[in-house]
């Protein structure tokens, strides 16, 4: 992959992370309740909060946000950019990019109330299994265990030509 494509991919993934991070604060606020309590349905002043995705800001209060704001955007963007840099243009990247915002949301809730809500962990685990299973069917995946030949030389033809040259050398030696 060329350097330009690398930078472009990382930039696009950072943008995706930033947009995903923008809609996390409301969910982070609503899920941040101690174990055994109902998920929050109202802002700190008691106005009803509708929906799960979006900024954690109450129109009725017109006050400051009651949930995470910039941090969620920055952290999710950085996580997605790091995943893009580490994974490159492989099918698994789509799975990581879908799961990363859920991971940031889980980390936020865990940080605030030391718990990982089941409505987040269970679907995320199921989605990871199904989606990673699907990427295993796609070409260019990298999840089928050790492949020493392809690890040493990423292009298959080079591997087969080197093994055929070994075979030719063996044939000429015997
Ligand atoms: Zn309010």
From TrEMBL:
Q: Where is this region: Disordered?
A: 143-174
Q: Name one GO biological process term.
A: signal peptide processing
Known InterPro entries for this protein? Answer: Prepilin_peptidase/N-MTase
Q: What's a single GO MF annotation on this record? A: aspartic-type endopeptidase activity
A Gene Ontology cellular-component term: plasma membrane
Protein's name in the database: Prepilin peptidase
